Amino acid sequence: MTEKSGIQSSFFHNGDLRMHFLRSGTGPNALIALHGFGRSSADFVRFTRPLNKVFTVYAADIFFHGKSTVERIAPDRNPLTTEEFAAFFSAFFDHIGADKVWLMGYSLGGRLAMVLAQNMPERIAGLYLFAPDGLRSSNPNLGRPGARLYDLVLFAKARTRPQVAG
């Protein structure tokens, strides 16, 4: 583990999956940050300081990005099934000691956050989604039909808000 400006770099291993993540903050709420396609956990470094009192932020390199790896890749199937992806993150939540987590995702990371929320709603406190991939609108006020909803913030529970450190 290395430390730079209060940010710790670590790895979590589960089976043949190895995920790199950056940890910052000491807030009482766990926030898992998932980046967009072709990006890395470093994208969230600039966001951590304002969040550090409310959240402990875990910015993950999603698989096949940054320093995260999948040791087995079968050419005839997707590298990870939805069930494998959810099970991996459930084990990660256990590893960091979080019964429930907040998810923040940008683009592909937003899509993956929605997959996790759909497959393990009991472990998700809420979602912050920014231009999530796969979420579309037919509202003509948002441009042509099928335009993406940008800077959309969704919460798993309408009245749920993160606790602030005392």
Please name the defining characteristics of this protein.
166 residues, eight-stranded mixed sheet, Rossmann fold, 3 helices, alpha/beta, single chain
Shape category: globular
CATH architecture: 3-Layer(aba) Sandwich
**Spans of at least 5 consecutive residues with low confidence:** 139-160
Assembly type: single chain
Q: In total, how many beta strands?
A: 8
Structural category is alpha/beta
Question: How would the blueprint of this fold be written?
Answer:
Elements: E1 2-4, E2 7-14, E3 17-24, E4 29-34, H1 45-51, E5 55-60, E6 69-70, H2 82-95, E7 101-106, H3 108-119, E8 124-130
Parallel strand pairs: 4-5, 4-7, 7-8
Antiparallel strand pairs: 1-2, 2-3, 3-5, 3-6
Written overview of the protein:
- This protein is an alpha/beta fold.
- It has a single domain (2-142), classed as 3-Layer(aba) Sandwich (Rossmann fold), CATH 3.40.50.
- Helix content is 20%, strand content 28%.
- Strands 1, 2, 3, 4, 5, 6, 7 and 8 form an eight-stranded mixed beta sheet that branches.
- A hairpin with a 2-residue loop joins strand 2 (7-14) and strand 3 (17-24).
- The longest helix is centred in the middle third of the chain and has 14 residues, at 82-95.
- It is globular, with a radius of gyration of 16 Å.
